[in-house]
Task: structure prediction
Amino acid sequence: MMNNAVVIDGLRVRRGRHDVFDGLALTIPRGEVTGLLGPSGCGKTTLMRAIVGVQRVRSGTVEVLGEPAGSASLRHRVAYGTQGAAVYSDLTVRQNLRYFASVLGVGRADADRVMEQVGLTPFAAQTVAALSGGQANRVSLGVALLGSPEVVVLDEPTVGLDPVLRAELWGLFRRIADDGTTMIVSSHVMDEALRCDRLLLMREGRIVADTTPAELLADTGKTDPEQAFLELIARDTADEAATHPHTRRERREEVGS
Result:
């Protein structure tokens, strides 16, 4: 238990008439980069919201750092970065970080620390609107790192960025994890799987693989992570059809398709 940052057991989340999760169980180790990968709509954002304690759940337990998700005691130990740059575009990098530092009660020194950590000190006096997409995402990451949280949850932080900027951000995630922070990063870009320590591959609200990059490629016999994921989907589809032959027809009837 002490080696795990997150422990989820029997998680059930329902949206309307549809079960997003129906008894989900998983663990996420401390001090590593764990990637949540899968197509849009597979449940990544819902899972991350459950981890940070802002998702309404029907049943099951979600523990983070040994406490129930969303507990007041986790307020400064867990950080959440939503999709898109959650900062003020008309303020400078320094002004944004100092403002959010004051909200969190951590002081200006911490704002300067994270500005250096995410490589934005040379751009401190520039407004966010004048930054590149990758630099703006770094400002959001800097906000998430204020107060030195033990767990950082990032929802598709590289979406819309070119391959060079994505590589730069993933290099930064690696350095942060190497300093002891648990990084949980979602993506629907499968080549980013190779940059993680641990992989949770999701499909239709289920974990179809809890693995490592090396194990994923070895298990599927593929050299490309996207092809490896497609192989896992094919296996999962075949297993589901054999075990629950009427499931897909019932789902189609439920949504009226």
Summary: The beta strands are 4-15, 18-29, 33-37, 59-64, 67-68, 78-81, 151-154, 182-187, 198-203, 206-211. The two ends are 43 Å apart (CA to CA).
